[in-house]
Design goal:
Layout: E1 3-6, E2 9-12, H1 14-23, H2 26-34, H3 49-56, H4 59-67, H5 82-88, H6 92-101, H7 115-121, H8 126-130
Antiparallel strand pairs: 1-2
C-alpha cells in the first residue's frame, strides 16, 4: 500500500520515497516532496532516503534530497550516516557530493568508525579516498 488517508490528510509511506531514491528516480522524489512526504522518514531497516541513495550511488537523488534539506548526518543502522554508506559501497561521486554539501567525515558510528577512517583502513579505492580531499570542480560541486 502506497498511501492511506487519515482525517483527510494524505500520508505517503516512506517505502515509495526510499524505492525512488534507490532507483535514482528524481521526478518521483520531487513529486513526493511536493506532496509533503517526510524526507527524514525511516524505512524498515532504519534508513532515510538519503541513506538509500548514498548506498546505491544515486547521485541525482542525493542532489534533490540535499537541496530539500535532508539530514546528511542522520543515523541509520549501526549509527552509520549516508556518508558511511557511500564510502562502504565505494560511490566516490556520492562521497564527494556529501562532503562538499557539509556532511561530517568524522562522525563516529556506534562501532566507533568514521567515514574517513573507514575509507583509509578498509582499502577503499583511491577515488573514494581522494573524494574527501579534492577541491570542488569548476561547476562548484564536483558532481
Amino acid at each position: 500500500m502506497l498511501c492511506n488517508t487519515t482525517r483527510g490528510t494524505l500520508h505517503v509511506t516512506a517505502n515509495e520515497l526510499h524505492d525512488a531514491a534507490m532507483r535514482d528516480d528524481v521526478e518521483t522524489i520531487r513529486r513526493l516532496i511536493r506532496d509533503a512526504v517526510d524526507i527524514e522518514s525511516h524505512n524498515q531497516d532504519g534508513e532515510t532516503a538519503l541513506h538509500v541513495a548514498s548506498c546505491h550511488g544515486s547521485i541525482g537523488a542525493i542532489h534533490v534530497l540535499i537541496d530539500n534539506n535532508a539530514d546528511m548526518d542522520a543515523r541509520g543502522v549501526c549509527g552509520w550516516t549516508p556518508l558511511h554508506y557511500a564510502v562502504i559501497h565505494e560511490h566516490s561521486l556520492a562521497v564527494r557530493k556529501l562532503i562538499i554539501s557539509g556532511a561530517d567525515p568524522n562522525t563516529y558510528s556506534d562501532i566507533y568508525e568514521t567515514p574517513l577512517g573507514f575509507a583509509l583502513i578498509s582499502g577503499a579505492r583511491l577515488d573514494v579516498v581522494s573524494a574527501f580531499l579534492a577541491p570542488p570542480t569548476s561547476n562548484g560541486d564536483g558532481c
